[in-house]
Amino acid sequence: MALGQDPLDALEIPDGTTVEEHDLVTDGDIVVGGQSTVEFGVRGRNVLAGERVTFGGDIEAEGDCRLDVWCDVAGNVLVGDDAYLGERVHIGGRLMVSGDLDIGDDVDIEEGFEANGWIVIRNPVPTLVFYFLVLSQLLSIGENEAADELADALSGDSDEEPLVIPRGSTVSDDAWQVSTPATVGDGCRLHGNLRAETIVVGCDDNVFGSLRARDDIEIGEDTQVHGDVTTRDGTVTIADGAHVRGDISCSALELHDGAEVDGTIRASGDIRLIQPDPDAGDAGGSGGDTSAAADATSDAPPTDAADAEADTETDPATDAETGSTPEDTGSGPTSAAEPDPEAVPDPAGDSAPE
């Protein structure tokens, strides 16, 4: 990764993420970029937040919780393992830690805290810097296996993908607003209007809000969008079984068979209606190939008729070989102009004069 590149370069919502009342719930980790605002409470495995992140509810972490400098939490913080709080972190409720607590200077916890492990008061380094220093130290002393284990843990080597909120984002019950691409997994239930550079929504989702992007928007199968779908310069693709309960405004539209749109469709470019054709898939194609196959089928009877005529024209020769007289009106004059005994030697004919 190049220096200065933000590793949190997209909004990534994993499969099964839901918004329950005032909490954002996922089975995996939650990673929030610096200077972001999350008006929900969050519940996940590990919760990592950059500097100056604001949470509007409680934080519940089954594993570790690390809050960088100047973070603000309106509710309680419940941690299943260890907690790391940077300097000048503010918690409006109570802090409860099952493991160790590493706390910085000028931390304000309004309703007190409780930790079952060690309590260390100091100024923790930023999260990414801390992990980078640990990896560098392990590699410098030759502990490659330990470094690989830590790298695998940081890369999310687990069954669940993390929920990633990029830097400078705003997530609330009204809007999810980011300046990066956004990806929503399968089986999610979200509240709020989604604003991003590009949007990809998975299958079997429920989005209670509108979708707006500058570029392309893709909506997966059996997904319901309770709002409008708008893009400035991109293409909107709606898969089979998807249902948009609002208007669509786009540059181009690809609407699969089985998709439903309740509102008005406005497109400055092309509108394509894509029909499924599993039978024609074996013959090699899409809707155009289906019509070509139909034309080929319609041309088949004349070909059979031509073959029948060819067979009829060859019947006189066959009759000549067997000694019979042709009775076909179309082939009679031809056989008279060219006598069969000269054209085709007939053993039966040679024996007749003898």
TrEMBL record:
Designated name of the protein: Polymer-forming cytoskeletal protein
UniProt superkingdom: Archaea
Bias kind Low complexity: ranges: 289-305
Composition skew (Acidic residues), residue ranges: 306-318
Annotated stretches, region: Disordered: 272-354
Signal peptide coordinates: none
Spans traversing the lipid bilayer: none
Polar residues biased stretches: 324-334
